[in-house]
Structures are given as structure tokens and as C-alpha cells.
Amino acid sequence: MKTVGTGLKYLGLIVVLVLAAVPIYWLLSTSVTSPEKIFQFQWFPDGLNWQNYIDGWKSAPFGAMYKNSIIVTLAGALIQICVAILSSYAFAFLDFPGKRIVFLIFLGAMMVPGTVVLMPNFLTIAALGWVNTYAGIVIPGVGSVFAMFLLRQHMLTLSSEVTDAAKVDGANHLRILWHVVLPMSRPMVVTVIVVALVEKWNDFVWPLVSTSTDSMRTLPVGLLMIKDAQGFTNWGAVMASSVFIVVPVLIVFFIAQRQIIAGLTAGATKG
């Protein structure tokens, strides 16, 4: 019976692997398929048409878009993580009036769809003169209730004896956070960092709304430009352009996958 259960688990893992791998393989294979064979079902393309990558790169200013995406992603994720760490520490270790009410308000904000605040955010950056600027793209998204909540829940599982010992030694809150809490929370912090990086890198709607010039477009918005430029005749170039966007995310995941798994399973393995 145990063998059957183990076999079913492996079967489930194989199914999940196939569901996750097939779209990526289809993307890669289509990106090197000739335009006239795009709609012909085949697992392995007849020959590698690298011209799709050249056509895709020439269809939009990819150099500027890569620069914009890197700046927006790194700046946005850095500020978001700093805000999340500080706020999660406050909710986990500090006592202040209305703490529970404020926390519930933050949780309620998670239920609000992003489209609801789209127009108020745009009117705000327009009034500040931040349209078509990095500040206009980055600043409205620096607050992440999800990141704060995830870190706060993890910090609550840490031993209070360690933080109490640091207080006895005369450490202030910033020192406790930097030298005690963060080292103990490294897997979860890495997980939140990766989630923030992927979120910022893949963000489409807000960069589209807050920019109107090609020089400030990010990669996801540029993909729409490429699709419009290529029309429905060269999907190979569109898929090749998608590879340019997907590869950096995959690299980040493979580098940090152990820390991500450790962070996601930290609460489950807590004794």
C-alpha cells in the first residue's frame, strides 16, 4: 500500500512537471520555427530558424527596454523589500496603539483589486509631473502588503529568547533587526525578494499607463509593440521576443531556488 501511495505521488509530480514544462518548451520551439510552419503541429521543428530572434530584436528598441526594466525592477524591488522588512518587524515585535486595527486595515487592502487604484495613482503622478519617469513607474508600487504579511508571519515563529537576549545586551531595534532577525529569516527574505523581482519584471499594466514614449517602455509593454509591429504573420518573432523576457526570470529562479524552497517550507517544518 505504501508503494502505491509513493507511486501516485511521483505520478502527480510528473503531471505537474509536464504541465509546467510543456508551455516553456512550446515557447522555445516556436521561437526557432519558420513562419510558414508555425501552425503545423510538430514536437521538434524542422531546422532552427534563428532569424526570428533577429526580427524580434529589430521590431522594438530592446536595448532601452532592457535598461528600463532592469532599473524599474531593481529599484522597485529594493524599496519594496526595505518597506516590507521594516513594517513586518514593527507588526511582529513592537507594541503601539491600534496595532491590531492597523494590521487588519493592511490585510483588507489585499482584497482591493489593483485596477481600483489605477486612476488615482495616475492622477497623482501626473500632478507631480512623474509621467514618463522612473519615479512614476516605481513609487506607486513600493508598498506590498503580501510581502509584509509573509515576513511578519515568519518573524512570529522566531524564538523570542534571542531577541530578548539582544535587548539585554543593549541592542536597539535596528541592530536587532539587522544582526538577529534578518540572519534568522534569510530564506524567507530571499523568497520575498524573488517574488518582488518577478512581479516588477513582469508588470505590464502600470508601466503601460504611466508611460507614453518608447524610450520609457519596459519589456512587457515592448512585447505588445512587437506583436503590433509583426502582426499575425510572424509569431516566431513574437515568441523569440518572449524568450528575451522570460530567460532573466528563469535564471533568477534557478539561482535562488534552494532559498525559495527553504523559505516556503520554513513554517511547515517548524517544530
TrEMBL record:
UniProt cross-references to InterPro entries, sorted A to Z: MetI-like (IPR000515), MetI-like_sf (IPR035906)
GO BP annotations listed: transmembrane transport
Segments passing through the bilayer: 7-28, 70-94, 101-123, 129-151, 176-198, 235-256
Pfam families: BPD_transp_1
Localization per Swiss-Prot or TrEMBL: Cell membrane
Keywords for this protein: Cell membrane, Membrane, Transmembrane, Transmembrane helix, Transport
CDD domains: TM_PBP2
PROSITE patterns attached to this UniProt entry: ABC_TM1
Annotated Gene Ontology cellular component terms: plasma membrane
Domain of life where this protein originates: Bacteria
Residues annotated as domain ABC transmembrane type-1: 66-256
Membrane topology field: Multi-pass membrane protein
Similarity annotation: Belongs to the binding-protein-dependent transport system permease family.
Protein name, entry field: Glycerol-3-phosphate ABC transporter permease
The organism of origin for this protein: Actinocatenispora comari
Upper classification of the organism: Bacteria, Bacillati, Actinomycetota, Actinomycetes, Micromonosporales
